Amino acid sequence: VKQVANLTLVSSACDMVSTAYASTKESHPYIRSVCDAAEKGVKSVTEATASCVQPVLTTLEPHVAAASEYASKGLGKLGEKLPLLQKPVDQIIYDTKELVLSGVADAKDAVSS
């Protein structure tokens, strides 16, 4: 999970969502109250679940470690094959717009000639 969260694409997307969420809560009092209630509910459920799940996680720890190692290797290979994962969302959006505009310009030139 940490490795995925550290991917530039994922971390920049999380930052964007977090900023939009905070901005929306700040701008709209009714939404803020609903979000605050939802956050309290999630926190309560998380705390209650953590104590119940801990014994199970302790039992499954060797299996989780093996799965984690396998996933880590897979993410490493995925990062090599998809350099897009190392770019922030803003850069991907900009590059995509440039690519589309270039394609449109080329099509326009082809039709004109």
Automatic annotation (TrEMBL):
<dbReference type="GO" id="GO:0019915">
    <property type="term" value="P:lipid storage"/>
</dbReference>
<keyword id="KW-0551">Lipid droplet</keyword>
<dbReference type="GO" id="GO:0005829">
    <property type="term" value="C:cytosol"/>
</dbReference>
<dbReference type="GO" id="GO:0010890">
    <property type="term" value="P:positive regulation of triglyceride storage"/>
</dbReference>
<dbReference type="Pfam" id="PF03036">
    <property type="entry name" value="Perilipin"/>
</dbReference>
<protein>
    <submittedName>
        <fullName>PLIN3 protein</fullName>
    </submittedName>
</protein>
<comment type="similarity">
    <text>Belongs to the perilipin family.</text>
</comment>
<dbReference type="InterPro" id="IPR004279">
    <property type="entry name" value="Perilipin"/>
</dbReference>
<dbReference type="GO" id="GO:0005811">
    <property type="term" value="C:lipid droplet"/>
</dbReference>
